[in-house]
Amino acid sequence: MSNITLIGTGNMARAIGTLAVAGGNTVEVMGRDQSKADDLAGALGGATAGKWGAVPAGDIVITALLADGVVPVIAEYGDALAGKVIVDISNPFNATADGLTHSEETSIAQEAAKVAPAGASVVKAFNTIFRHVLEKGRPNVFLAGDDAQAKAGVAAFIESLGLRPLDVGDLKMAHWLEGAGLVTMGLARHGVGNWDFALGVTEFPG
Amino acid sequence: MSNITLIGTGNMARAIGTLAVAGGNTVEVMGRDQSKADDLAGALGGATAGKWGAVPAGDIVITALLADGVVPVIAEYGDALAGKVIVDISNPFNATADGLTHSEETSIAQEAAKVAPAGASVVKAFNTIFRHVLEKGRPNVFLAGDDAQAKAGVAAFIESLGLRPLDVGDLKMAHWLEGAGLVTMGLARHGVGNWDFALGVTEFPG
């Protein structure tokens, strides 16, 4: 099992935290508003609340933040994240959610890697999954990253949640996973699955 | 059932043509090498061979060509494609198949639309599916396009093949479907499904 820290106290932090506790992981919650972190840690049961900006207890640090917040918060934490595996779950959608906020071929995960401290590595994961699907289904989880060991750790954590990790490759693939987030939004808006679905793989063996 | 014309005589033309004939559609094949078109039409059984550059018999024209060939061939056909629904199935992968050949936020489908004649419309579809999977499985088929009527026609054709069409939105989403092609390649290269899989949706109703 894994030691994880959730930075963020919103719906995705709650959804991932709930699965993480159920999967037997050690969970810490950090929020800029300490009372929200305390509340979420209590609600998750068995989780602890850390102090904003301190060194996270978890080896895996999930930034459960809106896309705009991820890079600034990682920069703010700075050396407190040294040696950590940082998991970016965000979707930098534009205002109409039919394109990304960055026009260049980058991603929040790649930008996060630029500001992360030495020895930290960034993995993109979870961004193609609607929060309510994570609460009731067992969707596939795509992940991308440059550090094989970090990805293996995140994959093991994903498996502890009862979900299937799907490695798509290096961190530069995070750009195309953000695009897969747009594809998921597009499908939902065009009548697929009444929003109760996730992108995944179907196997045709033999 | 649909009237379709395949421009191209390669493996994808054969795979789609086989399913199209089995699905009760009227199928025409066109190739720059007439003997290859004749051969494929004969192999498909009940299909006809058209003449390269002539007005296609099909209402739906599938350019089953390598990505580099799609835009030039549509330009070459010119007004012969007036009023047709053109289906681009290509993946403009770079030499290492870990990125696209165009760095801007466009797609072969969008570039094809720029050279297509008046009254023609372009739909992106099929590009996330490995040919061998199309031959043995029932993968989901993502599609994108600006013309709702054209997309409805292509969706009906896809259903006639026993496959599920998944509308992701406007033609600009073709860029992200090409990205989904890269995600599919990335998954295959990282041990998912031994190449015998396709991207699709999993529903979690209720």
UniProtKB/TrEMBL annotation, chains A, B:
This is NAD(P)-binding domain-containing protein. InterPro entries: NAD(P)-bd_dom_sf, P5C_Rdtase_cat_N, STEAP_metalloreductase. Residues 4-92 form the Pyrroline-5-carboxylate reductase catalytic N-terminal domain. Keywords: Oxidoreductase. The lineage of its organism: Bacteria, Bacillati, Actinomycetota, Actinomycetes, Pseudonocardiales. The keyword Oxidoreductase applies.
